[in-house]
Amino acid sequence: MNGKYDFDTLIDRRGTDAVKWDVPEDRLPMWIADMDFQTAPEIREAMAERLAHGVFGYGNVPKRWNEAYRKWWQERHGLTMDENALVFCTGVIPAISSAVRKFTTPNENVLIETPVYNTFYNSIINNGCRVLESPLRYENGCYSMDYEDLESKLSDPQTTLMILCNPQNPVGKIWSREELAKVGELAKKHHVIVISDEIHCDITAPGKGYVPFASVSDACREVSITCIAPTKTFNLAGLQTAAVYAPDPVLRHKIWRALNTDEVAEPNSFAVPAAIAAFERGGDWLDAMREYVFENRKYVAETLAAAVPDVFVVPGEATYLLWIDVNALPGDSSAIAAFLREKAGLEVTEGVIYGAAGAHHLRMNVACPRSLCEEGTKRLIEGLRKYRETV
Fold first, then answer.
1. Lowest CB count within 10 Å: 50, 165, 209, 361, which one?
2. DSSP letters along 261-272, please?
3. Same domain, 291 and 262
């Protein structure tokens, strides 16, 4: 228990068509980015009320939805949004894919800083564009942007769009105001639109905030479309509820047209009430969940460091996803992840799917009850030891 909220109880998700748990019975899934916690009771209450109504016809997006987003970002993140600059969409990835289609033509470059969320690659390639990678610098267990490389690639006339991950998934980095300002400056200089994926923004270390890209400077506001949602924060991915925020009226009109053309701008019957309840009444639950998850992060990092000192969790201040450095082991992340699945019964994600820059890392999801976290850590340590002995 964490105050009035229960994060310790095991919720059996097998047999519920959960992607995460669609694994053999002997395997513990700690891979795909959703939580093994029930969402906030305040959200479940709002959904129960909507369910009790019993009529599920076509719905509008009321002004209360816009106001819920506006107030949350103002109070939590210090961003004063024009609530009329918000557009409903069914998800962050549908919004990103729509943006790629709208703001590029086939064979143009879309820039990403790698390692980064693997579905960005799909949104780019599936829409006929080229992935242009700007690898992050990785030194002494820390990540930073390579501005020389970034500008070189943004300056290419074929580069028309950049997808920014803020905070960064999978490395757990919160970009500073200064770092983001530099991105905005370079993007404006080279006429590149920035799609900022900020879906992980609320899952930060207790007492630690993130910086919304659009809040940083005039340049950042002018070139940006920000994708936001309650889905990662409150474990609502299956409800398909998100928003885009575009301060510039021209970009706003274009993304609005893109989302409507692609038919991803209409809510299902639960998407709006769940989002409103999350942002109006979910703050206490979120604060308790953050404390719990970051204790899980700390537990894994410390236990792993004591047991396998040359394999370590990269320090991170955001997300419930651990980025584990396995450079000290032979082979790449694909071989190590496969071994952990087969020999230790642990499902984690091979870092190479986030780009070549992740070839020697693993991603592990610790948004789960402490007992599962402890069991997963045990399997991880035993599996890494066996892997070293075997290979």
1. 209
2. HTT-----TTHH
3. no
Full residue range of the structural domain in which residue 211 is found: 55-281
Domain count, the chain: 2
Residue 46 has which token pair? 């709002």
Q: Which of 13, 66, 71, 75 is nearest to 38 (CA)?
A: 13
Please, what is the Cα angle at 378 between 374 and 312, to 5 degrees?
A: 95
Residue by residue, DSSP assigns 242-305 as: EEEE--SHHHHHHHHHHHHHTT-----TTHHHHHHHHHHH-HHHHHHHHHHHHHHHHHHHHHHH
Q: Are residues 271 and 360 in the same domain?
A: no
| Residue at token pair 């719990």 | 292
Residue 255's identity, in one-letter code, is I
Q: What is the largest CA-CA distance in the chain?
A: 60
The one-digit pLDDT tens for each residue of the chain (391 residues) are 567 899 999 999 999 999 999 999 999 999 999 999 999 999 999 999 999 999 999 999 999 999 999 999 999 999 999 999 999 999 999 999 999 999 999 999 999 999 999 999 999 999 999 999 999 999 999 999 999 999 999 999 999 999 999 999 999 999 999 999 999 999 999 999 999 999 999 999 999 999 999 999 999 999 999 999 999 999 999 999 999 999 999 999 999 999 999 999 999 999 999 999 999 999 999 999 999 999 999 999 999 999 999 999 999 999 999 999 999 999 999 999 999 999 999 999 999 999 999 999 999 999 999 999 999 999 999 999 999 999 8
Q: Are residues 252 and 288 in the same domain?
A: no
What is the gyration radius of the CA atoms in the chain, in angstroms?
21
- The residues facing 162 across adjacent strands are 111, 194
Q: How far apart are CA 173 and CA 171, in angstroms?
A: 6
Distance CA 171, CA 351 (A): 10
On whether residue 370 sits in a domain, the answer given is yes
